[in-house]
Amino acid sequence: MRAIGLMSGTSLDGIDAALVDINGSGLTTTAHLIDFVTVPLDDALKEQIKLACDPKQSTVPLICQLNVRLGHAFLGACRTLCEKAAVPVASIDFVASHGQTIWHAPATDPLNNSTLQIGEPSIIAYGLKTTVVADFRVMDMAAGGQGAPLVPFTEYILYQSQQKHRLLQNIGGIGNVTILPKAGELQDVWAFDTGPGNMIIDQLMLDLFKQPYDFSGQTAAKGKIIPKLQQALRNHPFLTLSPPKSTGREVFGKAFTQRLLAEYATEKAEDLIATATDFTAFSIADSYLKFILPAIGSSDIEVILSGGGAHNHTLLRMIAAYLPDGVTLQTQDDLGGSSDAKEAVAFAILGHETLQGHSNNAPTATGADRGVILGKIIPNPWSHTAYQI
């Protein structure tokens, strides 16, 4: 089947759209990436998303209207991808859309265990004349899970090794890791959010330099660590929580960065970027040292990085410096893949499994009570004869 996977993450750097040919199902699934594009979100839309994520400024009309505008933005990304790949829109069998998270609040109380992704899938289905699978997280949460991370199921299918323990570290707005023990089964896979990825760095770059991100980590490389801030960040309570755990913009978003800027207003801008970059690197390595290496040991380990943070060379050097000797560090691109396309491809695979009627969460990663079929299916509204009264 030919699919488009859509991902718009907490970093708000754009809509990732991957065109994928998928064959097989379950553990026999193969996925071939045909083409990929990131369609930037315009500044006005970004600001609306940030407002929607802010509990003090968000409104019901804003969220309602934003749901529609993002639906059209996702539809536009699909059309842009098809044009770039020179494939007809009619050849797309389905679209799998993660949507845009505006609030994610996992809780042990089932009445408060909640999440919200917007970007109306009906608009995609109608405009592209195809089936759409969307809203993947809520079923896992209904089953008692945290609704995140969801990609471990696909990572087991695509990256499981008989010779190496593999840690698949995504560094988007938030960092998350999937642990694939060597020669393991699906039930051996576990995963959790490690903490902030690019989110704090990006917001600081925007506030201090009017730039959307730190290209290749060049700004961080010019700065020095601020010891007091470094220690304060390392004392953040999220780092002490045991997996499974997940987080998002509600914890490490704009409000967090504004408090940081107010308290450290006299510090050099480059030093703030360097210290925030160090925090991301430390939170990743600290998660490995606290929770992963005690479980699997420290030998035969490959760390495979993806997401926008995989292009930040200063961040990668910092991560490597914190890791024990013998732990190898590489990116999806080093393996011949795409660091940017990985999550969009993952949602295409998840959508394919949903349409096959297969459970596609990893309960050991999310904390769900059982395996469930994720997502809601929006049928192709053009595939039937309209009923005439």
From TrEMBL:
Family: Belongs to the anhydro-N-acetylmuramic acid kinase family.
Gene: anmK
Catalytic activity: 1,6-anhydro-N-acetyl-beta-muramate + ATP + H2O = N-acetyl-D-muramate 6-phosphate + ADP + H(+)
Gene3D superfamilies reported for this sequence: 3.30.420.40
GO biological process terms on file: 1,6-anhydro-N-acetyl-beta-muramic acid catabolic process; amino sugar metabolic process; peptidoglycan turnover
InterPro entries: Anhydro_N_Ac-Mur_kinase, ATPase_NBD
Entry EC number(s): 2.7.1.170
Originating species: Candidatus Enterococcus testudinis
Alphabetical keyword list: ATP-binding, Carbohydrate metabolism, Kinase, Nucleotide-binding, Transferase
Full protein name: Anhydro-N-acetylmuramic acid kinase
Enzyme class label: transferase
Pathway membership: Amino-sugar metabolism; 1,6-anhydro-N-acetylmuramate degradation; Cell wall biogenesis; peptidoglycan recycling
GO molecular function, one term: kinase activity
SUPFAM superfamilies: Actin-like ATPase domain
Function: Catalyzes the specific phosphorylation of 1,6-anhydro-N-acetylmuramic acid (anhMurNAc) with the simultaneous cleavage of the 1,6-anhydro ring, generating MurNAc-6-P. Is required for the utilization of anhMurNAc either imported from the medium or derived from its own cell wall murein, and thus plays a role in cell wall recycling.
Database matches in Pfam families: AnmK
